Amino acid sequence: MEGLQRGDPASVGGYQLLGRLGAGGMGQVFLGVSPGGRRVAVKLIHPVHAGTEHFRERFAREIEAARRVGGFHTAPVVDADPHAETPWMVTAYIDGPSLEEAIGRYGPLPPGQVRALGAGLAEGLTAIHAHGLVHRDLKPGNVIMANDGPRIIDFGIARAIGASTLTTAGSVVGTVAYMSPEQVRGDPVLPASDVFSLGSVLAFAATGRQPFGSDTAATVMFRIVSQPPDLAGLDDERLRSLIEACLAKPPGGRPEVRAILAALTGRGPLPAPVVPRTIPVADGRDAQTRTHQANPPATVPPVHARPAGRMPRRRTVMLIAAVAVLAVLGALVPILLTNSARTAAGHGPSTGSNLGRAIAARDFTVQLPTNAEANDLAFSPDSKLLAIGAENTGATYLWDVATDKQAAILKVRGSNSITSVAFSPDGKLLASANDDGRVFLWDVPAGTLVATLTSPSSGWADGVAFSPDGKLLAIGQGNRQVYVWSVATRRIAHTFSAASIINGVAFSPDGQFLAGAGATTFIWNVATGQRYAAFYDPRDQNDGNVAFSRDGKVLAVAGDGKTYLWNVASGNIIATLVTAIHQLVLAAYNLSVAFSPDGKLLATGDSFSHVYLWNVATGKVAGTITDPRQSGFWGVAFSPDGRLVAAANGNGTVWVRVASQLVGPGE
Predict the structure, then answer these.
(1) N- to C-terminal Cα distance for the chain?
(2) For residue 288, what pLDDT band results from cuts at 50, 70 and 90?
(3) Which of 26, 388, 449, 604 is the most buried (most CB within 10 A)?
């Protein structure tokens, strides 16, 4: 969203405007808020069109069409005044990017997600056609990827089936790349036209390309009328056959929307293809290079439901809901584990008994200076030192684990907040990421600064990790990039584009892969520099951190409210770890995640002041750490010798506990 610009109104029809969402041929769309506090989208006709009766009539028709369809297939109309000096319409705000934006960020969707997308769009078109309307402008930019399925928007050129058009004679209405042949020819437009556009949209989603190219309008129109679509790279035969059937040139050769919906949901036969299977390449368009990508779950593509980025450092507001819910639920809550095949209840010893036994086993607690908030922590490879990155003081504190005493304070003048810390494999270097984008490299034995790494573009540094051989240092940036630096030369060896703000990075144990967590979790092949996989949070939320299992086969991702275990090779979710609190409260976030050295335990820290130790084999909670002061755990780590688990709390406290005494018998 862009801020309001000079000349933009502060309010429209009693709705306060907050910023610009986008613009179209007819006018500008703003994000607004209703008098009762609900977010809305406010569409204003451009002043140049406001005095034209043709555009006023078209706008009034858009309002009427959107109102007629309603329901969950589109953005419901809340209010409108087509007769105002500057006509306006207010609809419910649908949070999420357009399909066009989603494909631009993450690339083509796997077949399962294309089918889910197609089912949602077919259901929406069924409702539109049932109300006697033809949309006539179905395109990726007019599909909003909401949490509960795609929404079709912009009824600006929709009209009743069989009605005469208000379009100027000789003009072509619609978006050229997604028009039907009858739209190009100026023939009558019936529901079959929307079916052709649906096929083009699904082809774009599956391949990342417009099926009839992106050349001049005249060239694209010629291909739409007389040439087969370019579906190179779409290897799923059933999906390809369905798209080809939708893209049949004669309207009568296309399946009805209800038949498409039935085929996509497995309740009907696959429509027979009409379009030839050969793909012409005489126009010189190169086939897109394909790289391996693990398949996310077969759902509508989960993409940003809210702006991506690290959650606010000021945690008070976020925790108000947590305090209220904890007061209701009490200290003991059932723990649930869900995976692809089952939902099983799990439980561990009570928090009080765990902490009581742990304290008797030489546990200790580190309290940072006043106003310092613990953001992240890491053990040295020999388990003798604990590094703690702090906010407000901008320092990295080194703690002697054996003596429970402060060993050193590492700080650079002007540093405000250390967001992430990591030791090199030999323990000689410590990397501390600062929120201004710099990463400091410290000589641990000497306690001196040896280098400052600064990214070539703006964006805070949030997430650092050394490769297993210590030769590379990966840095996640707020500018949607991951920079991989050569430790020896202090130069960037790789730059990976993440298309979202990165909150955490991790190398696989063999150093082959690098994972970065943000609105989507990406995995890159370090040697080739190519993206290997993209894992989409099924809840359409922002992921907090990542960790590879000991054998590198599993990637744990701390999502918002849930922790996902992904199979790196197949791209499937193995298990979803979630507590009862996280299921009930949307404000619950998982902030951090770490595997124990032997791979048997997984520690997750959340915004509700809990660290859960999960038994990876059973998916049950084996133990917990709880801070009664209700401040989130932003970092968790196991000592390399497996003896200790540490958790960095937002109130400046670091809890260090003997892991074996936190777990129940047999865990």
Answers:
(1) 48
(2) very low
(3) 604
Q: Which helix (H) or strand (E) covers residue 239, if one does?
A: helix 237-246
Residue pair 605/590 in contact by the 8 Å Cβ criterion: yes
**372 lies in a domain?**
yes
Position 231 pLDDT exceeds 70 = yes
Taking each helix axis as running N to C, give the angle between helix 111-130 and helix 257-264, from 0 to 180 degrees, rounded to the nearest 10.
Answer: 150
Alpha carbons 230 and 248: distance in angstroms, whole number: 13
Q: Long-range contacts of range 349-352, CB-CB < 8 Å, 24 or more positions apart?
A: 349/623, 349/624, 349/664, 351/624, 351/625, 351/626
**Catalytic site residue from 79, 81, 95, 137:** 137
- On whether both 48 and 147 belong to a single domain, the answer is no
Residue 500 lies in a domain: yes
8 Å CB contact between 56 and 80: no
pTM as predicted: 0.52
Q: Does residue 299 sit within a domain?
A: no
Regarding whether 140 and 73 lie in a shared domain, the answer is no
Q: Assess if residue 539 is contained within a domain.
A: yes
Alpha-carbon gap, residue 463 to 474, rounded angstroms: 8
- Catalytic annotation present for 137: yes
| Other residues' Cβ atoms within 10 Å of the Cβ of residue 184 | 18
472, 493 contact by CB (below 8 A): yes
How many domains is the chain built from?
A: 3
Give me the CATH number covering residue 173.
Answer: 1.10.510.10
| Domain match, 406 and 379 both | yes
Q: Are 32 and 16 in contact (CB under 8 A)?
A: yes
Helices 191-207 and 257-264 sit at what angle, rounded to 10 degrees?
A: 30
Residues 24-77: pLDDT tens digits?
656 788 899 998 888 888 988 877 666 666 667 777 776 777 777 766 677 788
- Residues paired with residue 578 on neighbouring β-strands, in sequence order: 336
